[in-house]
Design goal:
The protein has one domain. The chain has five helices and seven strands.
Length: 155
């Protein structure tokens, strides 16, 4: 039983870097998404949300790398391969999308990609027990940010 997200996690964490980041457009030219309550949810921000545990890390690159590593540790420690998936040889990648709100809470988790056998429910369960994150910021102000988390299940 092996749950591997290390190689898929890093590229998908930054899937939210759309043409706005690449073309260095201003935030006014890249409108954030909205949810039903009227709260804005950004896809690209100056400082992306960070998993806790790296508060004393120096520069931004090291901080992001440390945050990713802490997230991986959390996933490895908490995800259990579902028995149904194991018994039926189900492998693949589940993707969960959620919002890290302006207070760092993980909210509105949803399954984006399924593989069956209870894997998506297990990935969703782990997302729901995550601790409070450091929120993303735009122009120094905490904001709501979408986050995609791939979890690869491999026997």
């Amino acid at each position: 039983m092996k749950i591997s997200i290390k190689f898929l996690l890093f590229p998908l964490l930054f899937l939210t870097l759309s043409h706005c980041a690449k073309d260095k457009l201003t935030t006014e030219e890249c409108e954030p998404a909205s949810i039903g309550s009227g709260e804005e949810i950004f896809q690209v921000v100056e400082n992306m949300p960070a998993f806790p545990g790296c508060e004393n890390t120096g520069d931004k690159t090291a901080y992001q790398a440390c945050s990713t590593e802490k997230l991986l540790e959390f996933i490895y420690e908490n995800v259990e391969y579902p028995k149904i998936a194991k018994d039926n040889g189900i492998e693949g990648t589940v993707v969960i999308r959620f919002v890290v709100d302006r207070n760092g809470n993980v909210v509105e988790p949803e399954i984006v990609r399924e593989i069956g056998g209870g894997c998506e429910e297990e990935a969703l369960r782990v997302v729901k027990i995550m601790p409070v994150w450091h929120p993303g910021t735009q122009r120094g102000v905490p904001v709501n940010v979408y986050f995609n988390l791939p979890v690869k299940f491999k026997l």
